Amino acid sequence: MPSLRDFSPRPLRRSPSGSGTAEGRPGCALWDDSPRAALSPGLWGVFRARALALLVLGLVAVALVGCGAKSPSPPPGGWGKAPATQRPYTVKGKTYHPIPSADGYTEEGVASWYGKDFHGKPTSCGEIYDMHKLTAAHKILPMHTTLKVTNLENGRSVTVRVNDRGPFVSGRVIDMSFAGAKALDMHNKGTTRVRLESVGSIPGATSAQDLPGPFYVQIGAFVNERNAQRLLTVIKRAGYAQSRIHSKDVGGERFFRVHAGTFATLAEAERARARLSGEYRDAFVIGE
């Protein structure tokens, strides 16, 4: 690191041509032959002392500013310290809210499986997917949750570990690895109905359908806000008084989404979605 002495003025050297340049570079008129341009040794000492004093004061000021700086604030929403895999995320316009614990978790629905197209690729938690290991993908369970999965069609069961997110196909509750699907004897069929149970479950804990809301059912999305307002009027008249319009920019374009609601639990929202899907076939549930 250079010392303060390295910052003392360098003596000026007149160019041989006497053209008023420093170090031979044109355009830097720092020297002339008049007596007034010369500084006495005493004046050089004063100039040097003042320059050093100003430099020290500047360094002290920078140090004080650095010590007084505030630490960066965590991002809004209370998710600053949460792992990335536990934060809400959106896929195809639908927002999912991972739950903090799998204790007592139970769920029934359709299972599917995924294999060689994803083999060797990173999962949502950063692991490399190995289709020959007993793992699975789930939309909201914490990563590394251990699940007992039972095939309701043949009674077979297997224990798997959650290390990925999915499946994002309507009506499906879990994506099994090829090894898990083979253990359930569903690898040839592709899908089957299953029951999920977290290993070490405790009585009275929350199941998926009892997850607290609020929840909404999205029934439409428009670029034209007036069209969204018209649909909002219709759905409110149908009895969904707390329905709303939620706007969001996607790919540089603003969309106005109509949300029917609200619903206190996921089960209520799913029942409403089933009722509304007759008229709004692309309806789906979203979490607040």
Automatic annotation (TrEMBL):
Listed Low complexity bias regions: 1-17
Enzyme class: lyase
Biological role stated in the UniProt entry: Lytic transglycosylase with a strong preference for naked glycan strands that lack stem peptides.
Span list, region Disordered: 1-28
GO BP field: cell wall organization; peptidoglycan metabolic process
EC number(s) from the headed UniProt entry: 4.2.2.-
Alphabetized InterPro entries for the sequence: RlpA, RlpA-like_DPBB, RlpA-like_sf, RplA, SPOR-like_dom, SPOR-like_sf
Domain SPOR, first and last residues per copy: 209-288
Keywords: Cell wall biogenesis/degradation, Lyase, Signal
HAMAP family: RlpA
Pfam (any one): SPOR
Taxonomic lineage of the native organism: Bacteria, Pseudomonadati, Thermodesulfobacteriota, Desulfovibrionia, Desulfovibrionales
Any one GO molecular-function label of the UniProt entry: lytic endotransglycosylase activity
Transmembrane regions: none
Family designation: Belongs to the RlpA family.
Name recorded for this polypeptide: Probable endolytic peptidoglycan transglycosylase RlpA
